[in-house]
Amino acid sequence: MSDLASDLPAAAAALSAEDRAGLVNALKDKLQLLAGQHVNVLETLSPKVRQRVEVLRDLQSQHDELEAKFLEERSQLEAKYQKLYEPLYTKRYEIVNGVIEVEEITNEVMSEEENKAAEEKGVPNFWLTALKTNEILAEEITERDEGALKYLKDIKWFRIDDPKGFKLEFHFDSNPYFKNSVLTKTYHMVDDDDPILEKAIGMEIEWHPGKCLTQKVLKKKPRKGSKNAKPITKTEKCESFFNFFNPPQIPEDDDDIDDDAVEDLQNLMEQDYDIGSTIRDKIIPHAVSWFTGEAAESDFEDIEADNDYDDEEGEGDEDDEDENEDGDEEEAGKTRRKSGGRAKPGKEQQTERPPECKQQ
């Protein structure tokens, strides 16, 4: 790793001595907090055993210092390879959107029917198909959304260092739904390694009149004999993939919300992070495999393997079933967080705009 920093942009250079010390201290603080909670245990030990434990704690401190260096070098390595991926993503964009043609097709002598088909540029509906093939994202995409997502040209993600987190960019061709050429979603994380979501920031979508996909217009006929002969119209929020750009928000005065509302909000925030991390970690790097369906089959096989393992683990006496019922829901949540990369929500999660659609 000695010459690694030379391959990286300035933003991904090695941590300063001050930052490294801060990271080590943070790890030590966590350890001290745990030690404080178990101080009574230490007091029950004999002097010799306690001395051995103190040596073990010193070993743990050395481990934490090495871990801090590991996290630093891993961040550098990820940044290096992100830079190496970029030319491949650029060529993928050019082929998908018909900017360039592959050599085999350019040099091939084609029949009249094939020539007619060749007028269709690129790979139509590439990103829409890739997104819909993923089980998590398919649940977010409605039939109304598909018309707009057909104009999606590319999805990119970038690591951000101050504050820590990542940013997603959705690049669209000119379309009849909204004016934006790029829609963004940014996640600020408290900790990249044990992800704790501080806040998610969406953006304003400039919908063309009558094209807002996140709201539906309801019309109600006036009552008979009413002076107002015009139908009564009102709008209400509806399901749409584009609600992704208006993330759930924690009220400024959280004393006004009850426990049930807090739990619902936490679930929404976890779901929002699941979507963002799935796009970053699965869709963007393996978009072609999702388009062809190969990635979905692979994911399904992994799930089946996990289920088989769970079945083997679950074989036991029936008497244990009642005893485990109370813990099932909690354990299921832990499994989802582990497999789906779900973050723990922090105090804030906000958007740059009010929830209503802005039409221009």
From TrEMBL:
It is found in: Cytoplasm; Nucleus. GO terms for molecular function: histone binding. One of its GO terms (cellular component) is nucleus. InterPro entries: NAP-like_sf, NAP_family. Signal peptide: none annotated. It comes from the Eukaryota. Residues 296-331 have a biased composition (Acidic residues). Residues 345-360 have a biased composition (Basic and acidic residues). Residues 49-76 form a coiled coil. GO terms for biological process: double-strand break repair via homologous recombination; nucleosome assembly. Keywords: Chaperone, Coiled coil, Cytoplasm, Nucleus. Belongs to the nucleosome assembly protein (NAP) family. This is Nucleosome assembly protein.
